[in-house]
């Protein structure tokens, strides 16, 4: 069972890379790009709809929402684009992972804004 789980995780990871590469492909329609970008950003983001510290429910997004989003995004893409991106994804996984400093910066800025807002709110409540 552990091997099956590892294979499933590996397949999920490859599918995320396929979606990442498909987002950059100019043959993909704009609405598919938007949906694909949202799925990839959500999958790689540390921010979840349901926080992981909530027992059982916290992992629903990791087990259901992310795979469902990947499945829907892949259904929106033409087969030829998926095949092209699958080859590129395999090369990326073997060589190196893509780095998106812009997305990482946005996530850090959002966390800093939430932290700053929380600090100001607590400070106002204490005074």
Automatic annotation (TrEMBL):
Localization per Swiss-Prot or TrEMBL: Endomembrane system
Membrane protein topology class: Multi-pass membrane protein
Record field: transmembrane: 30-47, 53-74, 101-123
InterPro entries: DUF1232 (IPR010652)
One Pfam family of this chain: DUF1232
DUF1232 domain ranges (all copies): 33-68
Gene Ontology cellular component terms for the protein in this record: endomembrane system
Keywords annotated in UniProt: Membrane, Transmembrane, Transmembrane helix
Protein name from the UniProt record: DUF1232 domain-containing protein
UniProt source species: Priestia megaterium (strain ATCC 12872 / QMB1551) (Bacillus megaterium)
């Amino acid at each position: 069972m552990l091997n099956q789980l590892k294979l499933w995780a590996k397949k999920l990871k490859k599918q995320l890379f396929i979606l990442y590469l498909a987002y950059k492909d100019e043959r993909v329609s704009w609405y598919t790009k938007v949906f694909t970008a949202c799925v990839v950003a959500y999958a790689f983001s540390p921010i979840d709809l349901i926080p992981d510290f909530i027992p059982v429910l916290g992992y629903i997004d990791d087990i259901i929402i992310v795979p469902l989003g990947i499945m829907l995004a892949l259904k929106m893409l033409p087969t030829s684009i998926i095949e092209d991106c699958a080859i590129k994804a395999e090369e990326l996984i073997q060589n190196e992972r893509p780095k998106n400093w812009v997305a990482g910066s946005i996530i850090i800025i959002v966390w800093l804004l939430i932290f700053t807002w929380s600090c100001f709110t607590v400070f106002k409540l204490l005074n």
